[in-house]
C-alpha cells in the first residue's frame, strides 16, 4: 500500500511540474519575443505581467466554444487530448535528479525503466495522430492541409531523431536514461568531459534540428503557418479545446528540452562535481537539471523569433536529402569512435 501511495505521489508531482512549467513558458515566450522586437511585453497584471497567465486562463475558460457542422465529433473532441497527453507521459520516464544515500538512492523520476529511450520515441510518435485527427475531423481544407503537413513532417524528422538516438545508444551501451546520465559524469583521458554534446557534436546538432520539427516550432511550424493556413490544424478550435493544443506544444517542448539535457548535457550532473548525500544533493541536482532545461527553452524561443519559416518543399528536401544522409554517415562515424575508445 505504501508503495502504491508513493507511485501515485510521484505521478501527481510530475503532472503538477509540467502543468506549472507550461504557463510559465508561455509568459517567458511573451517576454522573450518582446525583447527581440524591442517591445515591453506583459507588464500591467502583476510584477512583470506574471498575473497575465490566470487572466488568459479565465478568458479561455469562459470563451465560447463551438464546433462547425458536418464534423466527425468523436475525432474532433479527441484530437486536443491526443495532442497533449504524449508530452505529459514522456516526462514520466525522464530522470530529473537523484537523492543519494550511503546504500542505494532515490531517482527523481516516476519510472526508471530499462527501455526508457524507446518508450519516449514510441509515445512521441502519437502526437502526429492528434494533429491529423484535428485536421481531418474539422471539415476545413486549411485544417486538413495542416494535418497532412504535420504527418509528413513528423514521420520524416522522426527518422533523423531515431538515427541520432542510435548514436547515443552505441556510445552509452544502454537504453536506460539514468545510466546514460551517469556515464556522462565520467572524465575521458582524465580531462575530457563525457557529455555527449562533446563526444558526439554532429549527433547533437541533428537531434536538435529534428527536435524543432517534432515540436512544430519555427522555422518548422508548417502545420499551423498562419500566413498560408490561417491557423492550420487547430483553425476550427476555440476556448479550452484550443488551449489543449497550445498546452500540448509547450509541454512537448519542455519534455524535449528535458530529453536533450538527459542525452547530451549530463542530466542533473556536472563533470567532476560530486553532489552531497541526502535531500540537499537531490535539490542541487534538480536545480542543475532545471537550469539546463531553461537554457534550452530560451534557445528554442530565440530561434523562433529569429529565423524565418521554411517553404514546405525546402522543409522536406532538407530532411530527406540532407539530414537523413548526414544521420547515416554520423552513425558510421560513431561506430568507428566507439571501437577506437573501447
Describe the model.
The chain is mainly alpha-helical and 342 residues long. The chain is built from 13 helices and four strands. The chain has one domain (2-341). Strands 1-2 form a two-stranded antiparallel ribbon. Strands 3-4 form a two-stranded antiparallel ribbon. A hairpin with a 3-residue loop joins strand 3 (187-188) and strand 4. Helix 1 crosses helix 11 (239-264), helix 3 runs antiparallel to helix 4 (116-124) and helix 3 runs parallel beside helix 11 (239-264). The longest helix has 35 residues, at 2-36.
SS strand fraction: under 5%
- The mean pLDDT is 86
Low-confidence regions: none
> How far apart are the first and last residues' alpha carbons, in Å?
45 Å
C-alpha Rg (nearest Å): 21 Å
Biggest beta sheet attributes: 2 strands, antiparallel
The secondary structure category is: mainly alpha
User: Tally the helices: what do you get?
Assistant: 13
Query: From N to C, what is the helix and strand string?
Result: HHHEEHHHHEEHHHHHH
* Counted beta strands: 4
| Largest beta sheet: strand ordering | 1-2
Overall shape: globular
